[in-house]
Amino acid sequence: MDPTIAMILLTDGLAWSAIYLIVGLGLVLIFSVTRVIFVPFGSIAVFSALSLGAMELRRLPAAINLIGLFVVLALLMELARLWRQHAWRGLPRVLAFWGVAPLLPCALAAWATTQHSELLRVLAAVLLAVPMGPLIERIALRPVARASVLSLLIVALVLDLVLSGLGLLWFGPEGLRTKAALDGSVALSSSLTINYQTLLTIAVAFALALLFYVGFQRTRMGKVLHATASNPTGARLVGIRPAFTASIAHMIAALLAGIVGVLISPVATVYYDSGLILTLKAFVAAIIGGLVSYPLTALGALLVGVSESFASFWNSGLKDAIVFGLLIPILVIRSGLVAHHDEEEGDE
């Protein structure tokens, strides 16, 4: 392998590291707030990508049907809750939050389909993913919120399979690849060029990581999410509602999924079931961070992306096995560190 090929592989690895970083941020956020390993994250990203592809073909995105189904189910569950609690004064808020708000991105996507602006279609595809997070949380995860982490993981896996089936039903089996947001490339040397789409992906991931850091440290909502993640019981005692923070966390994660969808669709053909493998690779990065540390998750994303790029050069058939094989030494190292920490506490 000569240096030029190594630099090309490194560049490609950095681009995919940026994708895994964004997915990892969403996984860590939701797990820290709700204890759920949000496996459907990748499916939401795929639906966003397929929606953008449908709009470019001047077709209504099938995600509108999916959101409509979720809205009906969420409203029925909320109305049943109001009936049990005899709290009909909350009906306007329920209708606004679970009925009207999720349909606004659908209206924007329907309008963007008829327009010629690529930027508008990208914005509509990203926003179309946002209501999926809270709706999925309300329908499938909130009723079992007090279950064990293992039970929540099983529910999340089943939910992802259901979403894949709905994706096949409404989006179809055909894959799509969208137009690049930025055309052209920049030459770093006589034999190495980087396209603007790769630079955009890395820049967006860096900006989101910085925004996460500032948001959690400086904003009131960030402090609420951080308090819930650090001490759920204490958060309840000071008046922070777990259902509210769970909805906000899933909304933010769904926004990240929408961004991931429009970033990967120009560089890879996306199918209805491409989401699971995307989530699993980002999960390896999140495991490096212990599902709690954003900086270590960023480091894990860099390791996964670069390893996958070089592994695909050496043996493309084994690249996934090599990436997932990273979990073994990572878990062994983390297990040793945790055991050492427990021994120190025991000695005290």
Describe this structure in words.
This protein has one domain (18-181, 194-296). The relative contact order is 0.18. It is built from 16 helices and 2 strands. Residues 340-345 have low confidence and may be disordered. A hairpin with a 5-residue loop joins strand 1 (185-187) and strand 2 (193-195). The protein has a two-stranded antiparallel ribbon with strand order 1-2. It starts with a helix and ends with a helix. It is mainly α. Helix 2 (41-56) crosses helix 12. The protein is globular.
Structure, briefly:
The protein has helices at residues 3-34, 41-56, 63-85, 91-100, 103-113, 118-129, 132-141, 149-171, 196-218, 220-230, 232-237, 242-264, 275-288, 294-314, 319-325, 327-347; strands spanning 185-187, 193-195. The protein is mostly helical and 348 residues long. Helix 1 runs parallel beside helix 9.
Helix-strand makeup class: mainly alpha
Q: How many domain regions?
A: 1
Distance between the termini: 52 Å
Low-confidence stretches: 340-345
List the helices and strands and how they pair.
Elements: H1 3-34, H2 41-56, H3 63-85, H4 91-100, H5 103-113, H6 118-129, H7 132-141, H8 149-171, E1 185-187, E2 193-195, H9 196-218, H10 220-230, H11 232-237, H12 242-264, H13 275-288, H14 294-314, H15 319-325, H16 327-347
Antiparallel strand pairs: 1-2
